[in-house]
Amino acid sequence: MYVEAGGTSGTGARDGVATGAGAVPRRVVTGAGGVPRRVVDAVSLDVPRRGPVAALLASPRRLAPVVVAVLAVALTVTGSAAGLGLPPEWSLDVPASPDHAAGLIFPVVGAFLLAHGVRPITGWLMCAGGLGCAVHVFADSAMFAAASSGDLTAAGYLRWLSLAGWSTGGMLLAVVLPLYSPDGRLPSPRWRPVAALGVAVLVAQATVQILRPTPRPESYPYPQVIPNPLAVEALAPYYRPTLAVLSTLISALVVTAVLSLVLRLRRADPVVRRQIAWPLSAFAVYSVCLIAGPDWWLAATIWTGLIPVAIAFSVLRYRLYGIDTVISRAFVAAGLVAAVSVVYFGAGALAGMALSDYDRVGGLVAALFAGAFFHPLRHLLRRLVDRLMYGTHGDPAVLAARLAREVGEAEPAGALAAVAAVIRDGLCVTGVTIEVRGPGSRRVTLGLPGPAPRAVPLVWHGEPVGRLLIGSPGPRRFAAAHNERLIAAATPYVADVAHAVRMTADLQRSRERILTAREEERRRLRRDLHDGLGHALTDMAMSINMARISLRAAPASADRLLLDLRSGMDSVSQEIRELVYGLRPPTLDELGLAGAVRALASEGEPPVTVETSGELSDLPAAVEVAAYRIAQEALTNVRKHARARTATVCLRHEGSSLTVRITDDGRGLPEASRSGIGLVSMRERATELGGSCVIVGAPGGGTAVEAVLPLPG
User: Which cofactor names does the annotation list (predicted)?
Assistant: First the structure.
């Protein structure tokens, strides 16, 4: 989107946009949420433009974060270089720490965000916190350099500066920044006490360290004790316990700040959720390194540098995907480290109290206990994290169980809608559409799947039965809709329901065809009886009456009437035979199926061979009629279209089915005849009994018709 703004001479303003003399119309191009991204000249290129340096100098608000970033980088680099030049006895424990990464990267990224005019609170927190860490790195190196040169008094004052930088950086970056990420606001006003408590605890810890009593030389890790000008010796008995309590509180506050991001994640809409996911993942992995202890200093340093990068991504490129897996694994890893550590050290402590040779046996016992608990703990933590991130339905087993319950309880007519409701709620999407294709095609939509939903094919035992269209992620939880485990768990149930819908439609159509055929047959019988037999019998009754009258007066005329009556009776008998034959061929009752088919085969050319296999004398009436009619229609096609020399009819009763196969050696069935009424009739007769009828080219030429008719029982 963009907003056109312009001005003329003077210092007036139009539509709330201030303009100056000779101002050039400008186009303000904005990003998501109306945040200005850049301003582009809309007219002449002859207007002189200021370079980036001039623009910074003309805007103190943009210049200040750049100065802070440059100062922080300079202090960090200088402090790191000075630390590398210290004598071995005064050197730092590790060559780099999270403070080094924070002093280098946080101010630069914060200045970058402020230069783009987005998230001013977040940018200033990063700049100020990074500067505090840079001051800590520089003052630490300067303190040890002064101490190594013998100036212990200066080292004592530099220690104050180091503590001030450490408390400022830790307070802003570890506690306050997560609370205000990524939108520069607290999750709710109820989190203000947490931020205030974090500031108070870090200030308290810095104050306690500033008032540190003079340590004993034998317990000091360096050659000489750096004096403290404000040492309070009365604090000596309470100094270490107080520091331990304050350190525990700081760790708890850091975890609480990360949990505030988790709460934001669950309550936010999809776009903001993706913004939160990036810093949450970085803070979560950093927490893992923090729990792991000092030996993980390198990983902690790297992830400290990645936190500001993740925040920048969340602000500027919030449409990136796939971060939920990183978050989940980070939380699982953090929980595993904590739980296994508790099990290991707990088992080791118990073994140490019970066994004297702890170094060998106690360590082995602790390792065995930790290994035994590792796998169950991983599964438990994974389920808990999935429940935390995705809610109840993030578990595929829960979703599958709910689908099975809904399918079992729903009415057949509403099963598709019930499944769509469960899918939509379980996957947390804006809408779901279930398409059933083929016979009984239906389309059920719940919600708004959107213009480009994800299409998942529905396959039932290798047969495509439809599609599941999944909309975009909804506002309640993270984008779990496209979690493959959930979709894989849900798809088989949807395919089963889609197949059941098709089968129900097939059954309904079969019932309708049966009812239609029955009513059509009744109408035909009524018409034939009324129009044929009815009129014939009426005429015969009239002829009998006339014959009776004529018998006395004119016997010759009566004889003629009786002859006509006999002829009419023959016609009526023929009509009755035709009606009976239409209901069931009489030859089936007279000759049986095999004999009736042989009678068909002997009616004309070409010669037809009839082969039989199995018992054919006790077949159901419906199967006999279907087999006879299929053979009759196939032989009619052979005689009309095939130009065959020979044909064969094979009747085979095997197991629970009767197979009727008719083959010929003719020219094959023409394309124009493959969809004729006779062929359709053969297929329908087989399908009505639950069987099949296939018409293909026979090996060596000709046509083969094979119908398989199932037998009851």
Answer: [4Fe-4S] cluster
Cα torsion for 558, 560, 564, 570, to the nearest 10°?
100
Q: Does residue 252 lie in a domain region? A: yes
Count the domains in the chain: 3
> Cβ contacts of residue 473 below 8 Å, gap of 6+?
270, 273, 428, 429, 430, 479, 480, 481, 482
What is the distance between the alpha carbons of residues 426 and 405, in angstroms, rounded to a whole number? Answer: 14
**Buried-state track 597-624, b at ≥16 Cβ within 10 A, e below 16:** bbebbeeeebebebeeeeebeebeeebb
**Maximum average pLDDT range among 13-17, 363-367, 617-621:** 617-621
Answer yes or no: are the C-beta atoms of 434 and 468 closer than 8 Å: yes
pTM above 0.70, yes or no: no
Q: Are the C-beta atoms of residues 440 and 504 closer than 8 Å to each other?
A: yes
Shared-domain flag, residues 12 and 125: no
625 and 704 inside one domain: yes
Residue with tokens 């203000």: 192
Over the range 261-288, which residues count as b (16 or more CB within 10 Å of their CB) and which as e?
bbebbeebebebbbbbbbbbbbbbbbbb
Quick one: angle between helices 363-390 and 323-354, nearest 10?
A: 150
Of 334, 370, 301, 385, the residue nearest 98 (C-alpha): 301
Q: Which amino acid makes up residue 243?
A: L
| Pair 536, 571: CB distance under 8 Å | yes
Closest C-alpha among 287, 267, 285, 286 to residue 276: 267
Beta strands 647-654 and 608-613, pairing class? parallel
DSSP readout, 315-336?
HH-TT---HHHHHHHHHHHHHH
Cis peptide bond upstream of 712, omega within 30? no
What is the C-alpha separation between 348 and 342, in angstroms, rounded?
10
Cβ atoms of 705 and 662 closer than 8 Å: yes
- Asked if residue 649 is part of any domain, the answer here is yes
Place of tokens 């306690």: 208
Q: Mark whether 146 and 238 lie in a shared domain.
A: yes
Interval 438-494: pLDDT, tens:
766 788 888 888 888 888 888 888 888 889 998 877 655 444 434 677 788 888 888
The one-letter amino acid code at 321 reads Y
Do 229 and 130 share a structural domain?
yes
The predicted-structure confidence for 221-262, as pLDDT tens digits, reads as follows 777 778 888 778 787 888 888 888 888 888 888 888 888 888
Instruction: Determine if the peptide bond prior to 606 is cis (ω within 30°).
Output: yes
Same domain, 44 and 74: no
pLDDT value of position 652: 94
| Alpha-carbon distances of 537 from 148, 419, 426, 583, rounded to whole Å | 137, 63, 73, 21
How many whole angstroms separate alpha carbon 128 and alpha carbon 113? 13
Same domain, 90 and 210: yes
Contact present, 641 and 674 (Cβ < 8 Å):
no
Task: Give the Cα separation of 433 and 438 in Å (integer).
Answer: 16
pLDDT, one tens digit per residue, over 633-665 is 899 888 888 888 899 999 999 988 999 999 998
- Residue 59 C-beta-side C-alpha neighbours within 13 Å: 14
* Domain carrying residue 239: 58-262
Identify whether 472 is part of a domain: no
